[in-house]
Request: fold
Amino acid sequence: MQRVFSGIQPTHGIHLGNYLGAIRHWVRLQEDGRYECIYCIVDQHALTALHDRRAMTDNTYEVAAALLACGIDPAKSVLFVQSHVPAHAQLHWVLACVTPIGWLNRMTQFKEKAGRDRERAPLGLYAYPVLQAADILAYRAVLVPVGEDQKQHLELSRDIAGSFNRKFGVDFFPLPEPLITGEATRVMSLRDGRRKMSKSDPSDMSRINLTDDADRIALKIRRAKSDSIRGIWYDPENRPEASNLLAIYAALAERPVAELEAEFRDTLFADFKTRLTELMVEKLAPITRRMREYLADRPHLDRVLAEGAERARAIATPILEEVYDIVGFLRPGRRET
Ligand code: AQP
Reply:
């Protein structure tokens, strides 16, 4: 059975971009039946940006509740928190030792997130893609469903896996494949159609959170940037905002963009926004309601995550031991011949 791995940071609650770009596909793969799915709340990655104990804890619960509400079923998928499985950090170090710095220097996410003051950026932010490779390779996963923004990091994970195999003369790690699919692989900000919808955007009006109620969704869509052209069609170069909202509609409705272009060819932007709001509320309200129920029962979430971590450790620990053997680390208490 092929193994699938993906992760999400608890830097904030989940937004529509995370849902349409990634989590919806996680659920599909889980239900497909052909894969062993491993889904991780990557709190160690979040630590590169979030230095607030309370927020880290609350966000981790919120993301866990959101994933369950979206349809991740702990009986079918392994759902756990990254820091509960030490193999991620341990493998990270081994992989860091086979990753040339030049590869990391090319990572655009580091450049964007570190900004101009690169000298003061934490080492963790720079090493982030190596930890991401460790997350995937700790399970020898082959398929990684992600949004388009993670494409470059996934290519690096493949390079790192290849580098390890070459340096130690083994064929141990498979080269993981990104799975970037659907009508909304890169959901853009509601305030600026050229920027990605993101948890770290300071403006809450830029994104739809899975915790937003119907009134808040309606307000955000009403205020979303628009243009004064009649009719809605897909042209990201010239009409980024209209194109983004159309792609969101297509993804939520599970209908092709081309079909919707024909339907909305003469529709006023304001009327299109009303239709989008109705659809979004219809699709997201049940998730939000379930999420609140899960959030009200933290002991249940603790149990789910503890069981998930146990299952994850059972897969990752023997893989890490094999890696340690390959690089020649002594096993404690075992005499090498
Ligand atoms: N705007 C997006 N459109 C489509 N997919 C997206 N993803 C994120 N934003 C979009 C996908 O969601 C998964 C989890 O993302 P993440 O939490 O690991 O971090 P990220 O990609 O850095 O997302 P954010 O929201 O921008 O977080 P911050 O602001 O904390 O960095 C990934 O599969 C991602 O591709």
In short: The mean pLDDT is 96.
